[in-house]
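Researcher: Please predict.
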Amino acid sequence: MFKYLIKGHIPRDVKPVKINGRWGGSVLPIPCAFDIETTNDTNTKAAFMYHWQAAFGDNVVAGRTWDEFFDFMHWLTQPALLPKGRLIFFIHNMGFEMSFLLPQLYRRGMLARVFAKEERQPIEVVCKNGITFRDTMALTNMSLKSLAANYTVTQKLTGDLDYSVRRNSKTPLTFEETNYCINDVLILKEYAEQLHAEYTMNGKPIPMTSTGIVRQYVREQIPVNRRFIINKLISKQFPETPQKYDYTMKNLFRGGYTHANTAQCNKILHNVVSYDFTSAYPSIMIHEYFPVRPFKVVNDPDENKINYLCSSGRPVIFIADFYEIEASTYHCIESKNKIIYFDEAETIFENGRLYSSAHIRVMLTNVDYEIYQNFYKWSKMVVVSAKVSQLGKLPDYLYNSVLEFYKGKKELKGKVKALENEYERLYQEQETTGTDLHAELNVLSEKISNTKKQLQKVKGMLNSCYGMTVSRLNMAVSTYGEYVDELTEETKIGWYAEPGESYSALIQKQFLSPYWGIWVTAYCRRNILRAIKHFDKYAVYSDTDSIKILSDAPGIDDFFNDYNEKIKARNRSICAEFNLDPMIYEDLGTFDNEGTYSRFKTLGAKRYIYEKDGKIEAVVAGLPKSVVQQFTAEHGNDALFTKFTGGMYFEYADKNVHLYTDEVTADIEGEIMHEYGSCYIYETSFYMKVDQLFLTQIVEREAFLK
């Protein structure tokens, strides 16, 4: 039987709250949380739960086996204990816990509905007994430690539970280890209190993701009497069928441009200037125009007609075949996975980007076409099909939200800076005069901390304004369980769509066009790539909203000063039109000089290191920064620049791998333990593989520089 770790008031008198919206129903506003502790077995390469803890209201209970947990669930859902209504338990990083718990729920016939972003990543699990599990990591995009620092009084404890110790369900826990377990669920319980206060008590469903929070906010900016009309208008902008939707989203959305100049790879470059695009995506959403009407088919499209439509400023989507296409600059732009078809025998890619081909087929927007014209040459283009729409600014409910969140970000950044300056002034006064100002300094420190938390929240909301424009509908229905035929309709897994909900019914509920996010990223790529085209061989690397350029490139200051002046003029015009404070929006969308790197080296996308003011930084996908810091502390910066090449290896990389297993049994310290599913996390080494062909291409392309 489960036991109490903290015993408090059982909220028997709580009243369920009716929730509006598609998932509706009644929710009990009782803050609840759940967490497990596991032990690894290297022989079976599996993990086993040996302790679980749960908070509900003022209580924290715990147990050592799954049977004890289900006893707790049965006790908690007795009609005599609590009123009828959904009870939400929050879990942080739910994919881990659910690798153990989902099979248990399934075998007991308790699953009602599962929502997952993708395989092994559920964000909501609904049980037939009224209990729902929700993921707070999807809601915050933070670690539990960061969540606590930003939202709760209780803070994450560290070092009190040694995960290398093998434990079973009878292994006693020390006082410190027990407190570690308690704190993890108390953090989530406190965060749950805030969620219920903000959403449940106002009759609103708690969003599933951080983007969902902003989605709900933006939707509420639409007057109630206009929502039906907006839904109708937006639904007409979607492709006609789910198959066409999937095909379009797959082939048209390209994301940010992240790539290196092949000719400048695998060598140490000196004096590299870095420019950052300030609030790149939000600025695009304010400055640019987007498709705002349904796309209509262009009859008998050809190259001349496409050129005419694009030059007239119309938003265009088209599929075309390009023959004898080849890069015309030092940069290869098109990603291999965005090419619908290519002649494999006659196509060359440089590190995943198209260099040349005898024949490719792609789907492009008019903005992508402009990029192609700047970076490729071809002998012939044959247009297969085309559609055209009309341009307009984003609707007020989205446009004004971006302006509001950006204003909040700027104001809070200014407030943080002012408070930090005041803290520094008082600290210096205390040091020089000997006056005891500890009390004042403590108050200021608390204000700085709280303001930074507010800033973090607003920055997240600003970024989510873009994020929700690229959130895709996924009509695919998968299932949980070994035998599909035995599943009922209620156990099917859906994401966004209710089980059995049609595509036409789903798009009737949308208020964001599927094309807006596509055009946002296309405009951003265009702006970055205009700079890359200008500097050509001197541009060495770009990552979505930043560009690295050799400092001896001619006219660096002139180019970025001219660009920034045009953007500032645009900002002043917008501020005059909407009566906004020009000081707030002055720098929106400008390029900011982040300084000069004394040394820089790259081996392609998400693989570069640099030295600035004697300190070294590494951006290498899959390599924790702590490993780099430890290596340079022991061996120095020069050693890292030497080591950073194809085949770079770190044996102890502080890098975890997740291995999912199905039913498994093991002897753990004398106890036979069993799981129907688990997630085994273990540390692995880091090896940076670089394709030999790419190394050859680096040498070949470098020859053109000389």
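Model: DSSP finds 20 helices and 32 strands in the chain.
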